[in-house]
Amino acid sequence: MKYISTRGQGQTKDFQDVLLAGLADDGGLYVPESLPTFSAEKIRSLKGLPYNQLAFEIIKPFVGGTIADDKLKQMIDESYDEFSHQAVAPLQQLGNNQWVMELFHGPTLAFKDFALQLLGRLLNHVLTERNEKAVVLGATSGDTGSAAIEGCRHSDHLDIFILHPYQRVSEVQRRQMTTVLDSNVHNIAIQGNFDDCQDMVKKCFADQSFLPENTRLVAVNSINWARIMAQIVYYFHAALMLGAPDQPVSFSVPTGNFGDIFAGYIARGMGLPVERLIVATNNNDILHRFFQNNDYRKETLHQTLSPSMDIMVSSNFERLLFDMHNRDGGAMAELMSAFQETGNIRVDDEAWQAIKALFDSSRSDDQQVCDTISTLHKKTGYLADPHTATGIRATETLELARETPVVTLATAHPVKFPDAIVKAGLDAPALPVHMTDLFEREERYDILENDLPSLKAFIQNT
Ligand SMILES: *Cc1c(COP(=O)(O)O)cnc(C)c1O
């Protein structure tokens, strides 16, 4: 299995190198040169497998022999053993052909654990084999930071630095990061906003000369292919439970950076009968505007009750655009550099029509999210988090084939976002058992000015 860059110039790499690289040299994103495909018969043979065994079957072709099967199996087993629900990704039925798949039973209560539990272990394994050290550096506005820390904390080969905007993440989110006291975990509160944090991270990746020799910088945001790979699995898991390969299934996905839903698109490319993929956004609706009007245009950032989807542009969308341009890296390089200047992309009408046959979209504002949470709770007793609520509302407002099951991905546990629950007129839920003492635990983090040299010096001196 080889990986190529969406901008045509970056070196072709194998899985291990893509895992360590993050972004390609030409600024593009890595994608498989061609997808492994599963026949209906093969898909049928996966029915009933426990989640970790299914994960091994789906992930193995993407790893392409660069990690021994028994080692890969062990890492997958360990990753999903950390989940508190036996089914790992349980389905709940909300109504006729309406389902949610709960992706929040991992250690940090959001779907990001599915990829980052495995990513931490994969990195540790590859670095151990190569006898190398790496620095994981990332910025977080909430869920990514804690999931990455949980995934990396046990590695002797990794130091992890996570930047969050000082006093601008929720207390649960901050404490999930800062109460992890392992010596390789470094939380930094930057006196600035999330964009300042992100900007400093990007600059560190662009000029890595401040790092000691033989140390690499590794990206853990969703531009890293390994994250997409791990997320493909639960699309198979849900579809198999609802009758695939003999019954098609649709998915509604709360979307920010287009990582999670892109994994569903890949699952379909591998042969899974996915009928529709629904992009559910909050007021940060660049993707909704694209799917409605063929107008992908950067606008200002809105703060919403679903903060993990508060983005201006979607970093993984380039991977879909690449396919929409017949995988022409040269055309993509031009398109993306034009986007840098104009902040706007419009694609060929035929390609846009074709992609709309698969994707649909819906936008929900905060009021609609709260109404959805409260109505759903009244009707069914089910408590959805505000991200999940955008997905549920999408399935209710769009016209979908009634005979096709629709699965909304429940991307976070409602306890992480009590503000929205309270605004919906409901009681904030209690912390799960393994977190009940979260507010008594010791915290550790450093506060730094919004200043690149200070950050580089901090990383150097650690
Ligand atoms: C990260 C996140 C999302 C958005 O996922 P993308 O892959 O960026 O589309 C949605 N919901 C929650 C709770 C998240 O943490």
From TrEMBL:
Pfam families, A to Z: PALP, Thr_synth_N
Catalytic activity: O-phospho-L-homoserine + H2O = L-threonine + phosphate
Domain of life according to the entry: Bacteria
An annotated GO BP: threonine biosynthetic process
SUPFAM superfamilies listed in its UniProt record: Tryptophan synthase beta subunit-like PLP-dependent enzymes
Coiled-coil stretches: none
An MF annotation (GO) of this entry: pyridoxal phosphate binding
Residue ranges occupied by any Threonine synthase N-terminal domain in the UniProt entry: 2-80
Name the record gives this protein: Threonine synthase
Residue list for modification N6-(pyridoxal phosphate)lysine: 112
Keywords noted in UniProt: Amino-acid biosynthesis, Lyase, Pyridoxal phosphate, Threonine biosynthesis
Pathway annotation: Amino-acid biosynthesis; L-threonine biosynthesis; L-threonine from L-aspartate: step 5/5
Enzyme Commission no: 4.2.3.1
Domain Tryptophan synthase beta chain-like PALP: start-end pairs: 92-410
EC class: lyase
Cofactors that this protein relies on: pyridoxal 5'-phosphate
InterPro entries: Ser/Thr_deHydtase_PyrdxlP-BS, Thr_synth_N, Thr_synth_N_sf, Thr_synthase-like, Threonine_Synthase, TrpB-like_PALP, TrpB-like_PALP_sf
Organism, as annotated: Endozoicomonas elysicola
Family of this protein: Belongs to the threonine synthase family.
